[in-house]
Structures are given as C-alpha cells and as structure tokens.
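Recap from last week: sequence in, structure out.
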Amino acid sequence: MNGNNLTEDLPSILHNLSGGCVRYSLQELDLSNNQIIGSLPDISVFSSLKTLHLSYNKLNGKILEGSKLPSQLESLSISSNSLEGGVPKSLGSSCSLTSLDLSYNSLSDDLSRIIHHLSGCARYSLRQLYLRRNHIRGTLPNLSIFTSLKELNLDDNKLDGTIPNDLQFPIQLETLSMTSNSLKGVLTDHHFANLSKLNFLDLSSNSLDLANNSLTLAFTENWVPPFQLNYLSLGSCKLGSTFPKWLRTQNNIAFLNISNCGISGIVPEWFWPKLVLLQQDAMIDISYNNLTGKIPNLPLKNTYASLTLASNQFEGPIPPFLRGFMTLDLSKNKFSNFQSFLCAKGKIETLGQLDLSNNQLFGRIPNCWSHFESLAYLDLSHNNFSGKIPTSIGSLLELQALILRNNSLTGEIPFSLSSCTQLVMLDAGENKLLGPVPSWIGSKLKGLQILSLKRNHIFGSLPVQLCYLQKL
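Predicted structure tokens:
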C-alpha cells in the first residue's frame, strides 16, 4: 500500500483492517508515501504485527498515551509527518521494539522526558533510535540504560544544555550523530571509554568545547580511543590549538571533517601518508583552520577521494600526489607554484574538480592540461597569473566551469576553448584580455549559461552568434 495516494485518516484504515482474521495474521504493514491524516491510534489488536511503516504522510497531533503497540512489533517508522509533543510511555512498554524512527516531525518535548518514557522494557530491545529534525529540547541524559542500542540520531534539534560530566553512552553504540544542535560543555575521553564498537561519530555544528582541561579530556594528548571510526565529523567544534594526535590511531577513516575547529600550526607528518591509503569515495575536510607549512610529496595514486584544505595557510609548491584525488579544493591558501603538480608525467583519470583560487600562484599558467581528461570544474581565479590562456585547456572535453577571474592574463581567448562544448560557465573577467568577443562562443558553446568578460580590454561589437545561447 506504499505510494497509493491514500487520503483517509489512519484510525479508519486500521479499523477496516482489524475487522477480520487479518488482525491476527498481519506481520508487516507499509502505508508510507501516502496522504494519510490523523494520529497514531491503539494498534495492539494486530497481535502478530512486526513491522509498521507510516513515513511520508500527513499524520499530525500528539501520539496519545493510549497508542499501544502490538507485543510482537519490532520496527516502527513514522518519520516525515507532523507529529507534535513527545513520546508516550506506551511506546517504551513494547518489549520487542528494536527500531523506532520519529525523524522529521515536530516533536518538542524535553529529551530527558522522551528517554524516560522509552525506558520501559524497550530499553533492553531497542537497537535503533532516530529522532532527527524535530524541535526536541534539553541536554543529554544518561543513555546507558539502553543496553542494546547501536544507532542514535539526534541531528537538527534544539538541544542546548551542557554535557554532564557523568554522561554515559550505551556500550553497544556504533553510530552517534548529534549534528546541528546547540550543545555546550566538554566531552572527555571518559565519555567514550567503553565505546569499543563506535564507527560513526558526528558532532558537527554544535558549540561543543573539546579543548584540553584539568580533567581527562577529550581528547588528551596521548589518548588512544577504544574504537576505529569509519566516519568522523567534528566541524565547528573546538578541538584545541593543535592537530589532534589521537587521529593517528584511526586507520579506517572514510569521512573526516575537522573544518573550522580552531586548529593551528603544522600538520603532523603522519597525516599525509594516510591520504594515499584512502578508500574510494572517501572525503577529507580540514578547511577553515590556521594550518601552516608545506605539504610533502608522496607516491601518486588514484584515490577517487575528495580533499578540502581550503582557508588555511599552506604554502610552497602543490605536490603532484594530490592529482590523484577526485575533488581537490586548495583555495584561500598561500601556495605559490603548481608546475610540478600540473606537468608531472602520467594521465590523471580521476580529478574532476580543482579549485586553486585565492592563492599566490604567479607567472604563466602551465600548458599541461591534456593530462586531466576528467576535469569538469577549474577555478584559478584571484591569483597573479600573467601571459596567455594556455591552449591545452581546450583538451578538457568534460569541462563545465572555467573560472579565471581577477588575474593579469593577456592575449585573446584561445580558439581551442571551442572544443569545450560542455561549458556552462566561462568567467575570464578582471584580466587584461584583448580582441573581440569570439563568435565561436555562441556557435560552439551552446550550453553556456554564464559568460563574464568584464573589465578586460575587449573591443568591437558583440557577435550575433551569442543570440544562439538560449540559456545565457
């Protein structure tokens, strides 16, 4: 019954189903992706029901205390509705419940009360608790009572309390996600001491202060975590003034976000070799800190990963091994040379996005672009480049965006760019380019939506072929 555009109220639908023997035999009921209204009634009459999906409907109001669940129910999903209030004790009395998803509603109760109401016999069976994107208030209560809990998601709520020093997490926890709240206080290594199974941790976009203090803090200098994380996001948390040493112990990271964490100084030598070992589709983001120094060169390997080092103070030449990434953002640093990065031998089949804007790169742009056959986005703006636009950029047949703004480039726009027929954006404004606007821009670049040549030495009339650009 999924996606059938049902518009009845939920109590009526369930009443119609409960009239015959189906109430005793029904084990799974999927009513998600409809237009069902009303609130959750007592469904305990379905004595064999194990799975109930009600997500993506128009259920509203509070979940009433009389909303009892079948004793055999294992999974209940009511996400993406308009439920209000809190969670009644009756849900916590379901002794077989392993998964509860109330995400994307308008629940507004205090988290401590919600946890208390779920602390009946469900505390022993519940493995997954998803409360994402509600209006839940308060701070984190003791969660260790949920002895089987493996996944907890509290993202995008209104949690704003201080982390208790004696807070305990369930020892079976594998996934902990609390991004986009306003939590305050300090998380120490003590809080994570028993979480040997943790592999997913997201505390980003909070006000958490993870800097060192007199208590055994998260994370003390020589702390060795009991876990191996696959996903770690601490963006906009405070991690202290230096690069966290404990990350050296993490060998399975596929996603790392420690952007805007107040870190400064030189990145330790052990970090860079970890980049070469990244698995496919990994993402590393250490942007918006105050990291300094030069990046060493390492053996080139196509990692199919994404690396963001933007808005730091890295300097010197860009090492060739970074060509092996799929997405590379080195913008807003102090890099001064990328000749060896660009012109090292060997084709690069992986690099699709390259952002070198707002650095200290100067001189002629090297004419070595034929190696980068997959490049779709290239931003060299706000540097000190001079000379002509290299003709080999025309070999980038997948290129969709070329941004050369605010340099000192001279000469005409090369005809070779007419081969870049996938271009959607061409921005060469604020340079010293000469000559007329080429007519081939209109006849060859038919998908162009953004064209900027302002503040150059362009002369002559606009070619009529520009009228062919219907999306411009």
